[in-house]
Design goal:
Mean pLDDT: 83
Family: Belongs to the patched family.
Number of domains: 4
Largest sheet: 5 strands, mixed
Subcellular location: Endomembrane system
Helix content: 40-55%
Oligomer: single chain
Low-confidence stretches: 1-40, 314-324, 649-657, 789-801, 1233-1240
Shape: elongated
Number of strands: 29
Membrane topology: Multi-pass membrane protein
Strand content: 5-15%
Radius of gyration: 43 Å
GO molecular function, one term: cholesterol binding
GO cellular component, one term: endomembrane system
Length: about 1250
């Protein structure tokens, strides 16, 4: 300023150097000040550890320190390299010492174990904590706000940092969260953040995750760390915004990008399920309906035109002298027919002449055959009933059972309440009110807990020994933890009334109680310490989590507080070959059922089921139906006795009613059934309930029909001159026995061919039925013929309807049935297998209404895969470096489109968890360096060392011998606070090790199906699981198959349409062949019989669709049986037509109907009709639907086709008369009084 006048006189050019000098000086001053500020800013916030935390016992505060960073020692360098790889702070001067690094390592063990499977995620996470703990630039982004003096007298000059603000870049926080949000926790089938965020992964975000990790309520943070998120400076602090890696990026240390399973971005586009095929329609109408309508109308037009043409009758008498005109086939047929006639005539005559010998011999044979009943074994095991030992599902079940043990037995309760109250919970200090349904009110939970504890205390008796739940239950952590697995919401409170009542409150507020604990646990069921003031664990007493979708029902979405049902499941060990242990389980289940049947609580409605329930109820159902069957037999017996006779007066009632013949007929039926059962029991073939319930009705239908044919033919016949009784009966038998033999042998062969089926129920029924029908025929032509006496004549039946109307009606029925045959439902609703009054029905109903998860499914990798090689590991695992089409990856991809694949969750993977467990950074894998024995993470011992070194090779996956060295340790390690990856609870049965732990045999990877309610859901789930397993097998070049407990029951439905078509086609083919031969090689007659039977079968499908009868093993048995019974309705009429010598087809059809129609109508239709009606009164739903409805349909359709349609069809297109048979017939009766009858 002193020079200002001079300066003021300077020119501009003269003043410029001064201006530049002033600018330069100012710049230097600015640089100096900035440098000085940076030196002051680069100081620590803390250093070292001081006093113990008063809020989190066992944790320490950091010491307040605002000096410069301090160099780290050699031991610290190793820890820093382990925890913060890639960090280089020059001279390693940091704001932390070795003690802080050790604390950091201990605190981050669980995040390390769950998140290190995605390197980018874990790198970013460690970046967050390494900067917080050790950064030499702490003061730039951290501000210690509260301090306390250190209580230790030796540290009098130090203070504790008890609260700190951590300024974090929002960009960094978002990037860290995005890299970690998809990481899976394989053992739990959930995302890792569900276990590390304090809430469900879907509710977790970047800010609340970091807030949870820095919250003292998580049990790991010793003092509050308050995160402040911003990308711009705040209050003079520059937020920490270090470089981050996306999950699709590899790290500089060579770690690869995260796998698709742990990083959605790495997966590419989400798989899209193929579109459902559009329905087949014509002009918007079902195509089959349109086609069959057109076909039906076309047929009627053609048929009307055809029937208007005059038919030219032929005179059969012209063939009397034209035997030479008979064809070779006709001659052969006549000779075959004559041979059978002579054979049966001789046999009939012998039986009448030697009745005692025949009857006694028959009794001896029947007694010998029936004696096998002492070895009779009835199978009620559902697996044996519905699954063939050679079927794929059965073989896979046996493989699973032999390698991993049988699937556990399940005892389950579904508990609801009649109350509709809603309890409103108001969170403290703020938040929206949360409604809790009535079943989740505390008093309700206490009552349910009382019930659960009562069940736990049940004591059963087996062979004089007490059996409790602890003796048989599944205890995954035994022998270290013998608590039973109980999948119940009460296990969130460790099954304790005191824990349920635990609350933090004062006279003004309830800060935390069971409401807050419940809401926390349904979000983090594996948590050992909730974030509320309660700090209670969520994990069950058995050492495992209880997932809310298993323990709750009736909620919407994931609003578990809206649950209207509690589901309590007691898994019980199952035993493959140990009958004693299995007997104990059965005894306890029996006591469990008895207790719950007698339990009463007006506030609780309980539906329950035990593993043995279905089998018990099937047994009870069978016993209850005995009375129904007995009444049905009595009605049929009374009818037979009355129908066989010709009652003239009450005085002659017992004589005329032919009660002796009725009794004989019934005894013959029962004897044939008993003989069949006995013979197969001798051979060790077990019976099924279907055999016991169906075969007597079948044999009675066939047997009574044959009895009526014999008796009524005898009643119509007149004894010829000089003909004795035995000759008359022999002649009659010679006339009718070929027809009986035709039907019986056709049925026997058809049934035996049906035994080729893979379905045990169908195969067993076919074998027993085939033999019983044939034995019945043999006894009828022997014993019954011997007992036959004089009978009266029976009136003839002659049916007359308009031919055109009949044909139109029957072809219309056929067209309709063909149109709906593909619409018949497949499957068997399990509710139908129970009696009407069964307690299991209510359980099935509630299960369908409330349950929110499907059954578990295991993808089994068969023995032979080399897990010790990288190739074998990559083909299976789902982590870094694994194949994109590995097993775990393909199942994960399938879970993304669960509505199509029915795979609900990512699979649990023992291999991926093992890789995380064995990492050198983890505290899980340790061993005693002096003995080599495993050292659990919770053990504090200086001789425990890490399994693998902290080197580049040590961080890689174990291969070769090293893989097998540590695997048994992993499978025996119980999870704990310091190591949540122990494999004992989750995987102890998932890996089948070779003897002496020399290698890995078969293994499985478990997930769950989606909710399955209807049969079609179960069938679709099995189908999709097999498709997925086949794809995995192809990509691995090693067999993988899916297994779930229901597969053995539903596999039959995958091929039942094919099996039905095959069984019925084979049966029809057998009937065609036998009919062709036994009718004397009359091919056209056999065709007509086969067409009529085929029409009956097709019409049965139409009835099944109309009457809601699904296609399954039971209905298939009935269809096979209807094929056999249809032979009875058709073959006798056709044979009578073929041997008739009337003038034309119409007269021959009338004669066939008159001679055989009455026997068929009386013998089958009326006999069965009365007995079948009684079945409608059965308590069994299976009897009502599959027996009453189907049996009634079989009889009505068979009678209608055999007695109405078939004669009409024969009158139009029946075979021409066999010239050789006409000539032989007239020759045989030439010169006798029967010649006049024939001429007449």
């Amino acid at each position: 300023l002193e020079l200002s006048p001079t300066i003021g006189k300077m020119t501009v050019e003269q003043s410029q150097p001064l201006y530049l000098l002033r600018e330069h000086i100012g710049h230097m001053i600015t640089m100096f000040l900035l440098s000085n500020w940076q030196v002051q800013a680069q100081h620590c916030v803390w250093y070292g550890e001081c006093g113990e935390s008063t809020k989190v016992p066992g944790k320490k505060y950091n010491c307040n320190y605002t000096g410069p960073p301090i160099p780290l020692g050699q031991e610290g360098d190793e820890l820093l390299t382990e925890l913060c790889p890639g960090y280089n702070y020059g001279n390693q001067s940091l704001c932390c010492n070795v003690d802080q690094l050790r604390t950091l390592k201990g605190s981050l063990q669980l995040p390390l174990q769950f998140l290190s499977r995605c390197p980018a995620c874990f790198f970013n996470l460690m970046n967050l904590f390494c900067e917080l703990t050790c950064s030499p630039h702490q003061s730039q982004f951290m501000n210690a706000t509260q301090f306390t003096p250190d209580p230790d007298p030796k540290q009098a000059n130090k203070s504790n940092v008890v609260e700190v603000r951590y300024y974090i870049g929002q960009t960094f926080a978002n990037a860290m969260y995005n890299a970690c949000k998809d990481v899976q926790a394989p053992s739990s089938n959930v995302k890792a953040l569900s276990l590390l965020c304090g809430k469900d992964a879907k509710d977790c975000n970047a800010t609340n995750w970091i807030q949870y990790m820095f919250d003292i309520n998580n049990g790991q943070t010793p003092f509050p760390i308050i995160p402040i998120f911003s990308d711009v400076p705040v209050s003079g602090f520059t937020p920490m915004n270090n470089k981050t890696y996306e999950c699709t990026e590899g790290l500089e240390d060579g770690s690869g990008p995260c796998s698709c399973q742990d990083c959605a971005k790495a997966c590419g586009p989400k798989p899209v399920p193929p579109p459902l095929p559009p329905p087949w329609t014509i002009l918007g109408i079902d195509a089959m309906t349109v086609i069959m309508w057109i076909s039906y109308v076309a047929f009627l037009l053609i048929f009307i035109g055809a029937v208007n043409k005059p038919r030219h009758p032929h005179n059969s008498r012209q063939f009397f002298s034209l035997y030479v005109d008979a064809s070779c086939c006709e001659t052969l047929g006549e000779r075959f027919e004559n041979a059978m006639r002579l054979l049966f005539s001789a046999w009939g005559s012998f039986c009448v002449q030697h009745p005692l010998l025949v009857i006694l011999g028959s009794l001896i044979v029947v007694a010998a055959s029936s004696s096998g009943l002492v070895y009779m074994r009835v199978t009620t095991d559902p697996v044996e009933l519905w699954s063939s030992p050679s079927s794929q599902a059965r073989q896979e079940k046996d493989y699973f059972d032999s390698h991993f043990g049988p699937f556990f037995r399940t005892e389950q309760l579904i508990i609801t309440t009649p109350s509709n109250d809603t309890d409103m919970y108001t969170p403290y200090p703020a938040g929206l009110d949360v409604p809790f349904k009535a079943i989740l009110k505390k008093d309700m939970l206490h009552q349910v807990l009382d019930l659960q504890l009562d069940i736990e205390g049940l004591v059963a008796t087996y062979e004089g020994e007490n059996v409790t739940l602890k003796d048989i239950c599944l205890a995954p952590l035994a022998p270290y933890n013998n608590n039973c697995t109980i999948l119940s919401v009460l296990n969130y409170f460790q099954n304790s009334h005191a824990r349920l009542d635990h609350s933090i409150e004062d006279e003004f507020f309830v800060y935390a109680d069971y409401h807050s604990h419940f809401l926390y646990c349904v979000s983090a069921p594996a948590s050992l310490n909730d974030t509320t003031l309660l700090h209670d664990p969520c994990i069950g007493t058995f050492g495992g989590p209880v997932f809310p979708w298993i323990a709750l029902g009736g909620y919407d979405g994931t609003n578990y507080n809206n649950a209207t049902a509690l589901v309590i499941t007691f898994p019980v060990n199952n035993y493959l070959n140990d009958t004693v242990k299995r007997g104990k389980a059965l005894a306890w289940e029996k006591e469990f059922i008895r207790f719950l049947k007698s339990y009463s609580n007006p506030n609780l409605t309980i539906a329950f089921s035990a593993e043995r329930s279905i089998e018990d109820e099937i047994d009870r159902e069978s016993n209850s139906d005995i009375s129904t069957i007995v009444v049905s037999y009595i009605i049929m017996f009374v009818y037979i006795s009355l129908a066989l006779g010709h009652i003239q007066s009450l005085r002659r009632l017992l004589v005329d009613s032919k009660i002796s013949l009725g009794i004989a007929g019934i005894l013959i039926v029962l004897s044939s059934v008993a003989s069949s059962l006995g013979i197969f029991s001798f051979a060790g073939v077990p019976l099924t309930l279907i055999v016991i319930e169906v075969i007597p009705f079948l044999v009675l239908a066939v047997g009574v029909d044959n009895i009526f044919i014999i008796v009524q033919t005898y009643q119509r016949d007149e004894r010829m001159h000089n003909e004795e009784l035995h000759q008359q009966i022999g002649r009659i038998l010679g006339d009718v026995a070929p027809s009986m033999f035709l039907s019986s042998f056709s049925e026997t062969l058809a049934f035996f061919l049906g035994a080729l089926s893979n379905m045990p129920a169908v195969r067993t029924f076919s074998m027993f039925a085939g033999l019983a029908v044939f034995i019945d025929f043999l006894l009828q032509i022997s014993c019954f013929v011997s007992l036959l006496g004089r009978v009266g004549l029976c009136e003839r039946i002659k049916l007359s309807l308009s031919f055109l109307v009949q044909v139109a009606v029957f072809v219309g029925m056929l067209s309709f049935s063909i149109a709906v045959v593909n619409k018949v439902e497949i499957g068997l609703d399990q509710k139908l297998s129970m009696p009407d009054d069964s307690y299991v029905l209510e359980y099935f109903k509630n299960m369908s209404t409330y349950l929110h998860t499907g059954p578990p499914v295991y993808f089994v990798v068969e023995d032979g895969l080399n897990y010790s090689s990288l190739e074998g590991q990559n083909a299976v695992c789902g982590g870094v470096g694994c194949n994109n089409n590995s097993l775990v990856q393909q199942v994960y991809s399938a879970s993304l489109i669960s509505n199509y694949t029915t795979i609900a969750y990512t699979p649990s993977s023992w291999l991926d968890d093992y890789f995380d467990w064995v990492k050198p950074q983890s505290s899980c894998c340790r061993y005693y360096n002096n003995t080599g024995a495993f050292c659990n993470a919770s053990v504090v011992n200086s001789s425990c060392v890490h399994c693998r070194p902290m080197t580049a090779s040590g961080k890689q996956r174990p291969v070769g011998e090293e893989f097998m060295r540590f695997l048994p340790m992993f499978l025996s390690d119980n999870p704990n606070v310091k190591c949540g990856k122990g494999g004992h609870a989750a995987y102890s049965t998932a890996v089948d090790l070779y003897p002496d732990n020399k290698g890995v045999g078969a293994t499985y990877f478990m997930t769950f199906h989606t909710i399955l309610k209807e049969s079609s859901d179960f069938i679709g789930a099995l189908k999709m699981a097999r498709v997925l397993a086949d794809n995995i097998t192809q990509s691995m070049d090693h067999r993988v198959f899916p297994y779930s407990v229901f597969y053995v029951f539903y596999e039959q439905y995958l091929t039942i349409a094919y099996d039905t078509a095959l069984n019925l086609s084979v049966s029809l083919a057998a009937i065609f062949v036998v009919t062709t031969v036994l009718l004397g090689f009359e091919l056209w007659s056999a065709v007509i019989v086969s067409i009529t039977i085929a029409m009956i079968l097709v019409n049965m499908f139409g009835v099944m669709w109309l009457w809601d009868i699904s296609l399954n093993a039971v209905s298939l048995v009935n269809l096979v049986m209807s094929c056999g019974i249809s032979v009875e309705f058709c073959s006798h009429i056709v044979r009578a037509f073929s041997i008739s010598v009337k003038n034309n087809r119409v007269e021959r059809a009338e004669e066939a109907l008159a001679h055989m129609g009455s026997s068929v109508f009386s013998g089958i239709t009326l006999t069965k009709f009365g007995g079948i009606l009684i079945l409608a009164l059965s308590k069994s739903q299976i009897f009502q639907i599959f027996y009453f409805r189907m049996f009634l349909s079989i009889v009505l359709l068979g009678a209608a086709h055999g007695l109405i349609f078939l004669p009409v069809l024969l009158s139009y297109i029946g075979p021409s008369v066999n010239k050789a048979k006409v000539f032989a017939s007239n020759t045989r009766y030439l010169g006798t009084e029967r010649e006049r009858l024939l001429n007449y």
